[in-house]
Amino acid sequence: MHRFPAFVPRGEFRYDKVIHWYPGHMANARVKMEKRFKFIDFVVEVRDARAPFTSASYQFTRQIPKDIKRLIVLNKVDLVSEKLAHRAQEIIEDAGFPCVLTSASTNRGTAKVHEWAVKHIRPDYKTIGIWVMVCGVPNAGKSTVINSLKRLAFAAAKYGRPGNQIVKDVRRTESAVGILPGVTKDVGFFQISNKPRIYCIDTPGITLKKTIDPETNLKMAALGSILDYWAGEMYIADYVLHQLNCRRLYRYVDVLGLTGPSDDIKYISSFTAQTLKMVRPDKVPDPLAGCRFFLQLFRGGHLGKVCLDQLPDSASMPRRHDDHGREEPPAPWDIFEYPKSTRALE
C-alpha cells in the first residue's frame, strides 16, 4: 500500500513555454571543439544518469568523425536507483556504445574511464600520448570527471611502487567546478598522467541549439543544466513536484514537515519559506526562496532517487535505423515513455 492512498496527483503537467538557452559562448566553443577533432583519439560524453537520454549531446556528437571512438559516461549514479542506472547502461550498450557508470564527486567508477582508454586506444605516437575530449551538457559533471581522473592518478603514484613516474611533471591544477551551469566557458586542456601519458580537453557544456519539445529543456533545467532564473524557478519546481507525485515519492512531505502531499508548488514554497524563516527585506516570507530550497533538495537527492527519463524495456525499443535522423517527436513511445526518439542512441 502506497503512502497517502487518498491523494490523487494531477493527471498531466501544463507546459506554458519552451525553454531556450544557448548563449554565445556555447556557439563559439562548439566551433573550437569541432576543429580539434583531428587532434583527439576519443571522446568521452558525460551524461546525467537522472536523464540518460535527455542529457545526450546528440546535436554535437553527430558531428564526431566515424573513426573517433566514443565512450558514454553516466555520471551522478548515486542520485538514481542502481537498477535504473544499470538499465540505462544496458540500453546504451545495446545500441553499440560502450558505457560506464560513475559518481565522479566521490571518485566512484571513474577508474573505469582510465581502464577503457588504456585498453581500447592506441595513440599514433606514444610520446604525444592519448588525447581525449570530454563533452556534455552543462552541469553533467565533465570537469568533475576530469578532476577525479587526475586525483586517482596522483593517488596511484603515491601508493604505487617507489620511483614510479605516473604523474611526473603533471601539475595538480584542476578544472573549475561550480553549482551553476556555464562555469567552463572556453576549451582548455589538462594532463591527467605521465605514464600512460593522457591529456583531457575540457569543454563548456552545450545545450540543444533548438528544440520544439517543451519537456526536454525543462528536464535539463530541473537537473540544473539551465540557469534557474532563465527558465523560472517556480515553473521548474512545479515540474519537479509533478514528477515526484506521479512516482508517489513523498519524501518531500517528511523533509519539509508538511501534513501531506500537494500539487500546489506555491503553497509548498510559501510553507517552506515560513518554516525556515526565509523572509524578504520587509520581513514577509519569500516563496521564491522556499522554491529555490525545494530545488536544492531535489538536486542533492534529498527528496529521493529519481530518473526523469522513463526507460523502455528491450521489447519496446525500436531498431536504431527506424527513427534515424529525427530531431523531434512524434515518436514510437507514448508521451510518458522515453526516449522520444533514438537520437540519444546515435
Automatic annotation (TrEMBL):
Annotated stretches, region: Disordered: 316-346
GO CC list: mitochondrion
Domain of life of the native organism: Eukaryota
Residue spans of biased composition, Basic and acidic residues class: 319-329
Pfam families attached to this UniProt entry: MMR_HSR1
Positions with a binding annotation for GTP: 75-78, 139-144, 205
GO biological process, one term: mitochondrial translation
Alphabetized SUPFAM superfamilies for the sequence: P-loop containing nucleoside triphosphate hydrolases
Limits of the G domain: 132-212
Molecular function per GO: GTP binding; GTPase activity
Entry keywords, A to Z: GTP-binding, Nucleotide-binding
Protein name in the entry: G domain-containing protein
Organism: Vitrella brassicaformis (strain CCMP3155)
